[in-house]
Structure prediction request, 182 residues.
Amino acid sequence: MKKQPTRHKQSVKDQIVTGLFIELASHPLSEIAIASLIKTAGVARASYYRNFDSKEDILNYYLDQLLNKNESPGMPTVWTRTDVTIKVTDIFQALEEEKDRFLLLFQSGLASYAFDYFSTFSSRNGIDSPFPWTDEYMLPFYSGALTSVLYHWLQTGAKQPSADLAEHFISLLPDSFFVDQQ
Prediction:
């Protein structure tokens, strides 16, 4: 069970996340120096190292916080069309609220980071949710399609309501993705 961070620690982490995105707006991730990041974030160097091991760790934390806010701890995903539609709707809604930051990841050359993030989300968060498929290409297909659709939707102005887009996205997936369709 993950220990909940204190409010102060949460605030420091959020400041560092904000600082990273401010820096990303004008510099590639590889060129962002820790000294510049902590100055922009308004935190001490020790605060950075106490909370994060790398700049990628900051991005993981940010996306984990964003995508886990509606999660019930320890509740595995049940791979039914209904449950996955609900999860995908939550993802679309969360990223729509953070549209500028998510698009900035792509514009900063971090599209591969976003793809990797979605394909490793369950394992990094200790979610014991076995996938209903055995084909090794299904997870990369799903996470790649999800990331691509999110990016296209946000880049073109998110004109479709997130729930409608989630339903459409799920309708495009083959029945073999879902335990109730096999």
